[in-house]
Amino acid sequence: MHRAIRAYFGALKAILVVSLGLMVVLVFGNVLLRYLFNAGITVADELSRFCFVLVTFLGAILTIRERAHLGVDSVVKRLSPAGRRVCFGVAQVLMMIPIALFLQGSWEQMQINMSVRSPVIGYSMGLFYGIGVVFSVSVLLILASVLWRFLAGRLDEKALAPATEASAAQGTLQPPLAGAGGVIGMAGKERA
Amino acid sequence: MTIGLFLGTLLGTMAIGVPIAFALLLCAVALMWHLDLFDAQIIAQNILNGADSFALMAVPFFLLAGEIMNAGGLSKRIVRIALALVGHIRGGLGYVTIMAGCVLAALSGSAVADAAALAALMVPMMTRAGHDKPTSAGLVAAASCIAPVIPPSIGLIVFGVAGGVSITKLFLAGIVPGLMLGLALAAAWWFVVRNSEDQMQTQARVGARERLRALAEGFWALMLPVIIIVGLRMGVFTPTEAAVVAAVYSLFVAVCIYRELAIKDLYAIFLDTARATSIVMFLIAAALVVAWLVNIADLPGMVVDLVEPFMDHPTLLMLAIMLLIVAICTCMDMIPAILILTPVLIPVIKEAGIDPVYFGVLFILNCSISLITPPVGSVLNVVAGSSKTSIEALVKGVWPFLLAMLCVLFLLVLFPSLVMVPANWFSR
């Protein structure tokens, strides 16, 4: 199981790097071709935007796992440890609500758009909304895993504070499952 | 009621530690329920389409350029040029910091990235030369805050997309206010140095040959802002294309000319960029869902009614809005603040006859200043961590520069032509 999870996140990282590289090649290639040969890559705009959506949502799976999404900690850090724990538990449950709705909406849109083709490349637009399904399922699993470990009392106290831009820049993010023996909710840097 | 629900959900969820992107999505859910529009497909469509934007693609490209710049030795060479030019003056290292801050601002577009680079390079150098550490760190923090104003700027891109304002015009309008910030910091530093008791060592004056060598070494790094600004000014490329040109150019210089970056390092750089991109973009996508619902609920209309007394006095309205932004930005990071406030404020300023480009530059300048105000002040935290200075000491060190930056903001509110005349000239 652990190996499968690690392989999944490894694959996500590879897709992210390839997608970003492809975006650079397509957009820069288009600029170059336009000025050197007065030509362009027909699929560049559509494909680069698709890659961008991939980077955004598949990258977000990774960063949610690493708890790198920015929050405000000025209230939470003033609370007692018990208060912090309550807030953390409530926050985890609340985060699942919009993601569950996103999953439902993406699933419905994916089915509606299966036969709709994109204007230039002609790929199924169901694939576009499928990114939302992959994202939602992955994030729900991560959040559920974190919540389960939190309820089981296997969560490091330091992990209860949200990330801020400063902590992200300094690399002092505390993954929620560090030292908890779990992989799903654990930062890639710690294990992978 | 709608405004109360919007603010209550947003601030309440953020207060208990829900990440801002999720707080925005919860806010969207609450608004959908309140407006009787409860449909999961609204969230799915808006959030995915929010990320499907060619204009926003500039964000990962500028982030990539910044990563390559720091890893590939471009930042280091910029500092060397500044040292060669002004290092010998009394308090010269301070002017070096400001100069490097301005040039790095024209390369990366991220205050936090600039703060990390400048703090690592300049604070040890300044303390060794006998400068007071908190003041040195304070200057580094303030100089880093020029980055979101001078193009290319991620803040201006996000504002442009959220407010439907031309990013190219915003970029060109940001040049003069950014340089004014630099001059204001130089004036504040001159004042600090003049009244300082510290025994400062000045750098030895370097000869013309050394200066030329530093300029020749840093020439390739200095060409980047020139390429971007000239390209945008001449309409050679869009901001997104300018961003990708910046990334590829930085890569070429770092790998082929400076040879400080190996091809094998690229995987890690691209992965870090993708991570940073997803954090910013997920936040933007979530905010665009809220922005759509905010317009459906006619929240801007309600705000226009609230500020009706100010409508005939644009300067007064701008002052009031700037105070509101200062208050909000002290407890919220820059990008979320832009995303939450822009959809609400843009209709207000248009109604009052204020130019959205002018407003955008002042908005971002204001947000930049808040990066060095406690409690959130992300640049403050980065510099404190990097220079091993306590936040309390750093706040004392930063206040003269904070004051100088607020003076620039106040000047620009009183005299809009300081922004618009150069902006119109650049855009001609």
TrEMBL record, chain A:
A Pfam match: DctQ
Q: Name one GO biological process term.
A: C4-dicarboxylate transport
Identify the residues that the record assigns to the Tripartite ATP-independent periplasmic transporters DctQ component domain, covering every copy.
23-151
Key word Metal-binding present: no
- Location in the cell: Cell inner membrane
Q: Where are the transmembrane segments?
A: 12-35, 47-65, 86-107, 127-148
The principal localisation class reads membrane
Any one GO CC term of this protein is: plasma membrane
Q: Does the keyword Transport apply?
A: yes
Q: Spell out the InterPro entries in the cross-references.
A: DctQ (IPR055348), TRAP_DctQ (IPR007387)
The membrane-topology field of this record reads: Multi-pass membrane protein
Q: Which UniProt keywords apply?
A: Cell inner membrane, Cell membrane, Membrane, Transmembrane, Transmembrane helix, Transport
* Assembly and oligomerization: The complex comprises the extracytoplasmic solute receptor protein and the two transmembrane proteins.
Q: What's this chain's function?
A: Part of the tripartite ATP-independent periplasmic (TRAP) transport system.
Recorded protein name is: TRAP transporter small permease protein
Which organism encodes this protein?
Answer: Verticiella sediminum
Automatic annotation (TrEMBL), chain B:
Q: Which InterPro entries match?
A: DctM, TRAP_DctM
Write out the GO MF terms. Answer: transmembrane transporter activity
Q: Name one GO cellular component term.
A: plasma membrane
The regions listed as transmembrane in this protein's record are 7-35, 47-66, 78-98, 104-125, 137-164, 170-193, 214-236, 242-258, 279-297, 317-345, 357-377, 397-421
Main localization (coarse):
membrane
Question: What topology does it adopt in the membrane?
Answer: Multi-pass membrane protein
Q: Supply the name of the protein.
A: TRAP transporter large permease protein
